[in-house]
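Standup notes
- DV: blocked on the single-chain target, sequence here:
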Amino acid sequence: PVLDTTFSADKTRNTVLNSTLVLNHIYRNRPSNPHSWKTTFTNYNAFHDSANDMDINFFSLGTGPVRRTDRYLVQAALQGHHVDLGSDRYLGIVGLGLSGAWVFSDQLAFNASLVLQERRYHQDRGKDATNFALALGPVWSRGDNRWGLTLGYEEENAEVDLNNTYERYSLALRYDRRLPRGLDAHISYKREHTDYEVPDPAFNNVV
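- DV (later): unblocked, structure below
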């Protein structure tokens, strides 16, 4: 037997208003000190004209030490995120992020980041999970051109709902071009592959 997963819905017009606010604060006791403390606050909103239950309100706060020299930049940050969906609390996240950028020459640099998070879904505690994400890759520059390659790995382990336990692999390519009058242009490509511990039958063919 084959499970029928056909869905239907009426067409609805919708308009979305987006707003983003980012505030950065860096404390350094003297200009020559390579050490500093950086705090970043982010607020993102998406307001729907005819689907208010899909409105998004996202808050994020990260703070931690930074070390910067002529050849590298490394930083760590304690993170807290909060997401409201519609008028309800949806997701709360606490975590730790580590990132770095190393310059080997005028033409070659390398970026890496690692994030560990605890995710709490207020409306469905079965989705509560630990998330681990790693991304790294080189950046090549020549004149006004820059090419970047990023390889990523993400693992989410849900405490109860195995439909939300997965491993995800990604590959991203990006090309940047510096233009006259202080303008920049870029084109990017990203591909992802996800393996779920228990695939959701609503999105897979079951025989």
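- Follow-up: The mean pLDDT is 89.
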